[in-house]
Amino acid sequence: MVNMKVDVIIPLYKPDKSLFEQIRRLRAQSVKINKIILINTEKAYFDELLKNEDRALADEKIQVIHIKKHEFDHGGTRRMAVEYSDTEIFVMLTQDAVPTDKRLIERLTEPLRKLTPKVAVSYGRQLAGRDSGILERYTRSFNYPKDSRIKSMADMERLGVKTFFCSNVCAAYNRDVYDRLGGFAERTIFNEDMIYAAAAIKAGYSIAYVAEARVLHSHNYSCKQQFQRNFDLGVSQAEHPEVFAGISSESEGKKLVIEATRHLIEHGRFAAIPYFYLQCASKYAGYLLGKKYRYLPEKVIMKCTTNKEYWNKER
After folding, report:
1. Which of 176, 185, 195, 280 is the most exposed place for a label (fewest CB within 10 A)?
2. Overall domain count for the chain
């Protein structure tokens, strides 16, 4: 067993009983977790979950902090959560990321325990669940391949914006480096993980993708949901030109379209191609509109975004 201290931080919003399975699997990890920090949005939802399960989270190693919905921010909330941790490594998970085995934390944190190259953050592989369609399964395998890699500034010419790719669905952070870099952005509608990863790479650190550290995590989003998520993605890029200005994100999208189309043809799923293209068009339209959000009326923004509270805060 690895001798180390690790805290796990999980933001929650309207959690369901799958949270209990996630906690059970975290408790069974080969690396014993020091503390599980749950940052829950709106206490009423949390109380409803525990109505008949009041002992399910009765553990001194589980700390619950409640916030209001208008207080939530992708960067600021996680930044606040880190202040409740005092370990040398902390892990970020989302409430719908379920460890596939007992060695998730051990494998995910391994790159952070090595001295060279100096890794600031490592992120794991996301596998599609059983209820996922062929497009979601392929997209997960495209974004989270079977081979691990270490990314640094030397990869910028080859990988472009993908160099900064990182996901707080399942990621581990070196706390010393995190503090040195100033932590997560205090305010961002999306992409807090990539914004941090970009700062780390530009400061000379590396980012590790650990394919052996696996979680089940996938969504069957509608075209409308894809549009709204990518609108917020575009907004985050427009608000952080220090990271994204001059770096094209479109080439990776084009590559996905070409390879996914080939995959569908090879598997004889011709009927799925038109819907896939509709999804891609929805994503791209949302992304482009988000990049130009400053030119849009407030009413239009409110229809496009997934996070209305973000726009109601002082800017």
Report:
1. 176
2. 2
